[in-house]
Design brief:
The chain has 511 residues and is of the alpha/beta class. It has helices at 7-11, 25-32, 62-77, 82-96, 107-134, 137-142, 159-163, 175-179, 242-250, 255-259, 279-288, 302-318, 332-353, 358-368, 395-398, 401-413, 424-440, 446-458, 460-463, 472-485, 491-509; strands at residues 35-36, 53-54, 145-149, 168-170, 190-194, 209-213, 219-223, 294-296, 328-331, 380-383, 390-393. It starts with 6 loop residues before the first helix and ends with a helix.
Amino acid sequence: MPLKLGPDQIGFNARGDGPFALPFPEQIDYFRQKLNLPTQHYDDIIKSAHDRAFVVAGAAKADLLNDLRQAVDRSIVEGKSIGWFRQEFDNIVKKNGWHGWTGEDTADGRDWRTRVIYRTNLSASYAAGRYAQLTNPALLKSRPYWKYIHNDTVQHPRPLHQSWNGLVLRYDDPFWQSHFPPNGWGCRCRVTAVRADEYNGGQAPDDGTYEHVDRHGEVHTIPKGIDYGWDYTPGAGIVENLKDTALKKAEDLPKPLAKALETDIKQAGVKVFEPQKTAKLAAKWAMDNDLVDFADYGKIDAAVANAMNQSLFEHLREFPELRTNQKFVGTAQQQFKRWRELSIADYVAKLKDNGISEDIAQQYAERMIKPLKMKGNAFAHSWKQAQVSGIAVNEKWGKTPVDFNEALALSVRSSFHPIGCDTIKSVVDHELGHQLDDLLGLDAMDEVRTLYKEALRAGIKEEVSGYAGKNIKEFIAECWAEALNNETPRKYAKEVSAIIRSEYRRRFAAS
């Protein structure tokens, strides 16, 4: 299961820069305790009723709703991207014969509907999970105040949400009953716990209210800045008995919907990193858990294979779009072998299409496509070759982790590699830094190029590492490795890692 944090750790754990990629137990628990509730309209249930029910407007069939639920569950637990969710959505729509958006079947309608389902469930489950953490009695004792934080990465910030940024109020202030984020469709604001000395005596703002008339003609008075149906605290009502409350809510629903209320939830396992006893099992685990298309660690030590898997697993949780290029993980020798086998097979097929016999084609292809060798004493590499793109460790080092670690320690002492990068996992982090560079085109960004030139002038060996001075791509990978492995990353590591996360969010988080 995901790591349970102590109360004080929880106080610092509110992530506004990517909360949906790293689920925590309370977030998962909140989502999985819901009952499937078929609905015809988006406001068949509102406010805290969402704490009890999983709904998708217009999804009135139990099978359809369950399929959508499983897709959302994987998005939360496994950190799946919205691109992945949209593919699942298309498959589910086709399977169930459902049109899940208003109006005709268009790309814009599909994109809008999937974005609403994806973002709403992920943001609400995150908020509810955070509420469960923040109301931990041990945390409230040391950090009894909450701070509202606006997420500045949203494309269309709301002025009132911006005005609440930095507001500190006691956890039981009535303000939080209606203003605990998210506070509307697409809102990505958050709350974190702070000590009493951060409270400056401020009061909750009075921004006024507005009236919303629902489709039944009923008038609702809502605080300004809050969308209809969002003026509640996600997760606050879970202290009540789940089943009884859900059924009571159903009494107010149309009879066909109430009758269709699901009473059981299928509990699926939470995906976590699991070290394996052998390299062969580690390769199987990597493929079984969809880290790569193909894995082959040869006969290297299991500890090295596990370090490879762990780093890749953690990167895919934070950067799901990296998965597109992960065709292979393992040793470079096996990667080269697989590349040659696939290349020969492709070449043979082309020759056969031109009337050449298979035996002759095989012989010719084997002569034309030469075996590759790992260069020098390289620890590992990242390869962009289309059929086997991914990261791989040099078998020479992978067989002997003791020698591997000693060599890494020496490289750090001599400043050839950054501070903290004396572990096998740090080598993998470095190679995945190259993968992020390839994905985002970091080496072509003016901001990164400026930092690289500045580091060169400042003395790159002392500021980052000797290897970072080789070229801008190694600079990026070295900075990324330091950011993940040095407890107190230095200037360039911090700035490059911030650019990586910001650029990834810009490219993919709002897509």
